[in-house]
Structure formats: structure tokens, C-alpha cells
Amino acid sequence: MTVTSVPELFIYPDRAALNRAAADEFIRCANEAIRARGRFTVALSGGSTPRELFAELASEPYRSRVDWSRVHFYWGDERAVPPDSPESNYRMADETLLSHVPVLPENVHRFLAEEDPGVAAAEYERTLRDSFGDALPRLDLVLLGLGTNGHTASLFPHTLALDEKTRWVVAVWVPELNTSRLTLTAPVLNHAATIIFLVAGRDKAHVVEQVLHGPYVPQDLPAQFIHPDDGKLLWLLDQDAAGELK
Ligand code: 6PG
Question: If you measure from the C-alpha of residue 246 to the centroid of ligand 1, how many angstroms do you get, rounded to a whole number?
């Protein structure tokens, strides 16, 4: 079956409607994967946007719509901080979702981001190999956010992570943040069955238009590297984030 990788764009009147739509798509992906393969593998995004989505998934009616014991959680990226840091993407997901639903601890695959970044990246690649074998991992769902500078996951403009074609996970120094980040690389992200960009807020309106309709300059706008090689690409936006779309 040829699956189009032309971005499918959905715009919602407000944040609540956006979160419900994203939760519906998450549940759809989960139940399809569990039916087909007995498990659902999802890489979560970090930052602030997905907080409300995770809280939505942890509450009814969504909470009861998936067998959480069959869900395997990964992360698209992580900050180089311990899991109890306020900066940790793992901690955010744990606070808003994982501690509220009956996931199996062995199915929560966080980055060991408290370790040296290079070590943590290599260890996470091993985690992926343990889960998916030695072929390029095909995650059922990758959830991504979008930074105002066009970054996604921790693929930041003009960093070495953008050109990585063989490693699945890299540690990358991000000059603009003056810190290291851990990230899945574009080949892994693009091999997912479904990729969702979840973007909200007026501050993202300009970069959304640039990424979707501007010149193809992925070194400047790394989110432009994201186009599934055989899967679905959904952009779920609220009205504010879609405000500059032509
Ligand atoms: C992270 C994220 C990152 C995020 C964007 C948008 O670790 O911060 O994975 O890619 O999705 O920076 O962040 P906001 O949702 O906070 O705007």
C-alpha cells in the first residue's frame, strides 16, 4: 500500500480541540498497532506543547480507550539532565501521563540522560536495537513539536545532528542553548508509520508558514527534513499557529 507522505494539515479552533484531535489520533494509532502487532511503540516529544495532550490521554474518555500495558514509550529527544530535573522531557511525561496510566515500567524506555551525553546516546541506540532489532526502527508513532527557529526533536539549525545518516541517536552540542541535547536522527524519525507535528500558539505561526510553504532550507529549518519514507505525516495546529498560513 503506498502511503502518501504529503503533509496532511488539520487546523483546530482552539487548544482544547487540538488536544482532543491529537488524543484521538494517538488512540487510533495505538489500537491499530496493538491489533496488528500486539504492541504500540511511540516516541514522545518534549517541551511544553504536549503537556496538555498527555494530561488529556491520562483522563477519561481517553484513558480507558487503550491497553496501556501494550504501549512502549520512547522519546524523540531529551535534555542532558537527570530524570528528576524540571528540564527533563521524561519527567514531564511521567508527571502528566505515565504516572496516571497502568504502563509497565519495563516498557518505558527513557534516555539515561544523567550520563555523559555520548554514552547516553550510544546506550539509547542499544535500547532501540533491543526493541526493534538491527534494522532501522519503525516506530508506530512519532510525536514532534516545532521550535520558533524551526527545530524539531533536538535537530537544531546548523548542527551536526542534521547530517547524520547512519547513527540512530546522537548527542549534539547546541550553541544557541549552550548545552548538549540527545536526539533521534532524521532517518529514524522519518521511518515511523505516523508522524504528528503538534503545534500551538501565535508565536509559532511564522515558522509554520516558513516550514510548510517557504523555501526548502532544512539546515535553517530542520523540521523540513521530516517527511516519512513510508508513512503518514500529520500537522495538527490550533488556529493561532496556523495564523500565517497562506
Ligand atoms: C524539546 C522538544 C522540542 C520541542 C520544541 C517546541 O525537547 O524541547 O522535543 O523539540 O518540541 O522546542 O517546544 P514547545 O512545545 O515548548 O514550544
Answer: 24
CATH number at residue 164: 3.40.50.1360
Taking 70 as the pLDDT cut, the residues of the chain under it are: 1-5
DSSP-derived pairing of the beta strands 8-12 and 40-44: unpaired
Total domain count for the chain? 1
Residue carrying C-alpha cell 515500567: 105
pLDDT digits (tens, 9 = 90+) for 98-120: 999 999 999 999 999 999 999 99
Question: CB of 183 closer than 6 A to ligand 1?
Answer: no
Which range marks the domain in which residue 118 is found?
A: 8-238
For residue 6, the model assigns a pLDDT of 78
Task: Using alpha carbons, select from 11, 8, 10, 7 the residue that is nearest to residue 239.
Answer: 11
pTM exceeds 0.90:
yes
Q: Examine residue 244 and state whether it is found in any structural domain, yes or no.
A: no
Angstrom distance (rounded) from CA 127 to CA 65: 28
pLDDT, position 131:
98
The answer to whether 192 touches 43, Cβ cutoff 8 Å, is yes
Residue 136 inside a domain? The answer is yes
**99 is a domain residue:** yes
Going by alpha carbons, the residue nearest to atom 8 of ligand 1 is: 47
User: 198 CA to middle of ligand 1, Å?
Assistant: 10
Does a structural domain hold residue 70? yes
Cα distances (Å, whole numbers) of residue 234 to 60, 88, 144, 177, 198: 24, 26, 10, 28, 8
